[in-house]
Fold this sequence. Notes:
The complex is a heterotrimer. Chain A has 23 helices and 33 strands. The longest helix of chain A is centred in the C-terminal third of the chain and has 28 residues, at 618-645. Chain B is 55% helix and 6% strand. In chain B, 27% of the residues are buried. Chain C is an alpha+beta fold. The N and C termini of chain C lie far apart (65 Å). Chain C is globular and about 60 Å long. In chain C, strand 2, helix 2 (42-47) and strand 3 form a beta-alpha-beta unit. Chain C has a domain at 12-62: Uridine Diphospho-n-acetylenolpyruvylglucosamine Reductase, domain 2. Chain C has a five-stranded antiparallel sheet, with no helix packed on it. Chain C has a four-stranded antiparallel sheet with strand order 9-10-11-12, with helices on both faces. The model of chain C has no long low-confidence stretch (mean pLDDT 96). Classes of the chains: A alpha+beta, B mainly alpha, C alpha+beta.
Amino acid sequence: MSPNPPNPQDKLTPEPKLTTTSTPSQMIAATNKVPDWNPNSKGNVRGQDKTYSPDKKWIGKNYQTPDLMAKVLGQAKYAEDFRAEGMLFCKLLLSPVPHGRVRGFDLTKALAMPGVKAIITADDVPPIADSLTDNGTVIKASKWGERALTNEPVYHGEPILAVAAVDEWTAAMAIEAITVDIEPLPFVVDPLDSLRPGGPNPRTDGNVWARPETPKAVPGQPPPRPPDPIVTQMKWSDEDFKTFQDGKLPLAKAPETWEYGDLEAGFKKADLILDETFQTADVSHICLEPRTAMAYWQNGKVYVHSGTQSTAQTLPAIGRWLHMDVKDVVFISEYTGGGFGSKITGGVTMIIPALLSKKANAPVMMRLTREEETLVGRARPAIIGRCKIGFTKDGRITAVDYYSLCNGGSYDAQNDGGSSARIISLLYTAPAMRWRGVSAITNTPPRAAMSAPGGLQGIAIFDPFLSKAARKLGLDQVAIRNINAPEGKALIGPAVNGKRPYVTSCFLKDALAKGAEQFQWSKRVSLPKRSATKARGIGVAISTYNAGSVGFDGLIVITPEGKFNIHCGIGNLGTENFSDVNRVVAETLDMDWNDINIIWGNTSKHLPYSCVSGGSQTTNAMTRAALAVAQECKKQLQEVAAKTHGGSPESHKVSRGRVGGMTYAEAAQAAIKLGGKYDGHEVDPGLNRVTKTSAAAVAGTGLVAAAKDNFAHDGAYMSYAAQFAEVEVDLETGKYHVTDFLTYADVGTVMHPRALGGQVLGRTTLGIAHAISQKWVFDPNYGIMVAKRMYQNRPPTILDVPVDMQWSALDTPDPESPIGARGIGEPPVGGGAAAILSALADAVGDDVFQRAPVNSDTILLSLENKKPMQHPLMAHI
Amino acid sequence: MGSIVEWATNPWGQSVPIHIGWVMIWVCAFSAIAFAVVHALYLAVFGKPKVFAVNDTPEMVNSIPEKVVRHGAVARAFHWIMATSMFTLLFTAFLPKVGVKFDWVTYHWIAGLVFTASIIFHIIHASFFLDFWAIWPDRTDVRDAFRRMQRFFGKPAPLPARFSKYPLENKLYHSTILITGLTAIFTGLFMMKRVNTHNIFTRNPYLFGDMTWGLMYVMHGLVGVSLIALVFVHVYFGIRPEKREITRTMIQGWMHKEFFLEEHDPARWRPGKDTDTPLTPPSEVPGD
Amino acid sequence: MAVIRDVMPNFDLVQPASLADARKLLDSDPDNVWLMAGGLDSFDWLKDRIRKPKTVVDLTGIDEMRGVRAWNDGIEIGPLTTLTDVVNDPMVKAKYSILSQAAELVASPQIRNQGTIGGNVSQDTRCWYYRSGWPCYRAGGNLCYADTPVGRNREHAILDAQRCVAVSPSDSAPALIALDAKFVISTKNGEKTIDAQDYFLGPAIDITHMTILKPGDILTAIRIPGTWANSKFYFEKIRDRNVWDFPLMNIAAAMKMSGNTITDARMAVAGAAARPWRLTDVEAQIKGKTADEATGKAAGELAVKDAVPLQFNAYKIPLMKNLVKRAISGVQEATWEA
């Protein structure tokens, strides 16, 4: 605390801004004034006001993306907007039980109804094919894998059969006319219930995922792939459960573990040891566009319209689900209403209309309702984390012993636990760390990656413990993070082949310092915290997540008419990077951006192999690929010019749509004449087979440049954020408001400031959602979700975040990428939650909540009883 | 609404019974009224005095007191406590279903507990302190029932003996009440696990599956509506003029000697001074 | 027969243009008619196919049941007046600001534009078990799924629960009770007028209905007398999100003051019981007392005297206590202390 009282001249927020009696209009008025941000302050430049890459023409500049007008004018066609002649509508019969076995159906009444055209059940769904990795390894389809329809539903709401009819109304009536005979089987929705001695198993063969040991490498052979996880049964003892009543996660046996450093020595060195348990919530992705899909067949090819996070990579997924060759599949997805990890390669349900369409011999549209989306869509797994952390008295972490229990839902082993440990190991640079983890199976909807899978949980669980330690040690919150934050090529995760991997770069300390200055942290620290009925708290968090990958392809075609087409396989899920990354092409070829035509969202238009827009990798991976193909294109243009007009290729300058004296049209015509590598008939054999197929399809249509990102890199790409929050709690009602928030990001080179700001604030809000409101509620007796509508799941609204929410970014290029840009979709999510949780603890004390989201009920009751009043280990309350 | 059992879809989509169709209230009520009307008309138009085989010895006649005690004070107290709780149960159960809205649940389960306690008392009392067998039909009852039947249809048959302490109809009624009452009690006690009894019972609404619970509610409802009819018929007989002597026994405890000798066979029922103490076991009736 | 939700079922839609026409419709077949105003409650039930009426009567074409007009010394609000129109009405704002405040805190702007004041007071409870179509007491079944040892009941009742623990979700109802509003109901036997709080039913009396409306009844007017115009008002709503949320609890109070002494008061909360819960004991206790912290505290204690918490809603007890206190003595906004 500052020994001097704050200067009244620059006092921050001396009065509470809001009361719970405020009406929405008062609330907007209260948060819309900007008293706390002094634009003249040196460190106080908002992200949107900064200048990025002053030496660049297109990179770092705001612009209008090619999909924008269609979206604003309502002309953009999402899957649901398509119509085809004779199109039928489909409705699903969802499992009424959380786990059961279908013994039979009575479909006679439904099939006899006029307008009902076809019904498919699990027996009509082909088994999922094995998949092939890029290096030709066959990955066996898991016997526990999810199929589009099932005869053994493992969660309430799992699709059992589908009806196609002339309209949804008829299809719904047909569903109601169907009798399904289902034998209910044992089920569990709370992972701890399944781990109890004699607890029910969510699957007939077990309750947790375990990964068999990786076979030993054979010298001279490539290292063997780690085997896929298998379902196995694991029960803990009553002895293990002894800590349950005290709200501490039992530290019983775990199928997965890793460790580095000397844990024991680390704890011995510690001046303070915390042992804390915290639970995050299961949270649906709540994409505005549900997993709606439309499909039809033409001349043996199936055409599928649906949303995705990767146009290029959804194609093979559909092929695998339908057991078809990808050449017979066309996937159309120009616009996707959000993915957040739930639609990485679309969703397996999209084959339902395809199968129905085949059976009914007519196009079929499957629109999912919000409730269906909540059930068959995906969600983030809840994690209960228990951490033992050693600190020196100056706040440096000496050792971390972290145990995670992940509610992995009904399908697929979820790696959120391992991922959370990996993130913790990087973010707090513990010299010694052990992780033990359980990926439990429950009869709840399937989980999938959700914006910072593991990152959100790890940071939301762990970062607030730093706040607690700082309070115990009398340290500043920013200082304790600064002393533990990674820097440069920081180490991440456990050792691989005897050596711990490291990241490409990290300037988080810089972001933390600049953010603290912009947030006026030191001033806020010195402000009073309590009024008669209110408490104010400030919180800071550091955050990180994956932000790049390498090795993808680009494809450019310059037509003989002079059209410059960039073929793009990136999914357009609203992040705008299907367009942003291609600014690199304009920059490299010194072109006018408006002369560039991006072809995206339809695999019949021959798209190259692109990354999935997950793991925040697109900006990094695809700027690299864009640069590779732009350089290839430039090289080809110059060679074509040299071959046509003589001189060295370098002597023909590529600029403003011309190469030397040639227009692009002339160059393309010349390229076709030259053939070979200039018109796509010969391509780099290192290209992915998807790109090769596409290049072959466009070969001869112009100058065809295809290239793979072979740029060097060293380390794992991660982006970072330093995040600051202020909350104000009404102690008489428990209601609180987030009054200020700043995210200061380290994302490498800024490509598109406006899109970046949208991502930073949007994903911060997603993080805040996990702290303040969003959750699932299940009835454990029936294993059925009871809070399944949007208003019951409570995603935050615009009035739940400060109107004047702030962002900024460093714009320090990543040294391991030629463009220097990294992703940002996920890195701010964890800190978004953690900063709020820390601010809340700052306001109301450390012993008020042990789970998120934190609502007025928790705060009020815990304050009243002077201890956390919600059991931290119980699921879905 | 028109069905005997009301079905619902439980959270797992299974069809389960939830309670009786409330129309059954009216079905039972009207059946009982119809029975009473038909019975009353029949007696008024075709009714003939009952005839019995009588062979009392004067010693026997003389040994009968002027006031024959049939129900002791304790038995009468039980009857009226039980009756009060039964009426409370019926009114609290069914009035709200037919539109008279009030807060009924607490009264209902408290009355249910009183009813249960009174029945438990009655079972003990009747088993150990009264003539336990007096209320159960014996061979003579069966034989006489057959004889009465034959005579009713105009066939020749010997005269039936007079009744023991309870006429056969009375005994059968008691058996029916016993079955319905015990069913109501057993289902009702389980149902106490479902409602908030302020910790008299620990709540466990999931003690049984939905189907079992549903059947329990249906059984409770069915015996409930049956009791509407049974109680109505009971009251109807209670107020019939020819049953005045019997009704009196439940109020004052005794009946007149004349009535006793008219309808009851001293060989089958030898009333003592206090019928709350057990008498001799039923004896075979002479005359065969 | 399998269950499917979220698809509108088939029904006959009738759109009467006058109350008389609606009356005629209702008199002919009261049991098979579903009355719909803004549709925000109705469409949920219909789309979930839990309620499948033969006929839906859309009342919104009846102009005579819309708008705010002067009535004696007070006002009359047509039940079809949208919440937005209630919020913005100059008469409401000038004399009954508590109602405009309450109405503005309902849900979201979009919902207020569509939802009506009549619908807001007549809407069914939002208990997620009941709304999921489970055969609970309120749905005519034999169990309250929320009030079981494992039931999820954070948003459920602490007062007046009798088997069913659902709560009244209305924001405007407590304000109307505080204003001593009268509800006018058209029945097949003519018109009747009742006090606002008598419009609502608790589960002990009728476990399957939230209001006294019987098949064939229409709420035709809400009348607010002048008695409580411009008295000292207090309205507060606590919800999880700052917009688009039902109240965890709300409170409405109207107090007549003589200096700082309360001469008369009316107070009601929603979110505590199945009906908007009028605090008559509190009203009686605070009469003649000074509107200060001590009075507020004592009133808060009295208000929750009979409260019975469920597993997850015990916070509603201190919440209600504090809301009652604040309604009387106001929110203490002392300066921030170091």
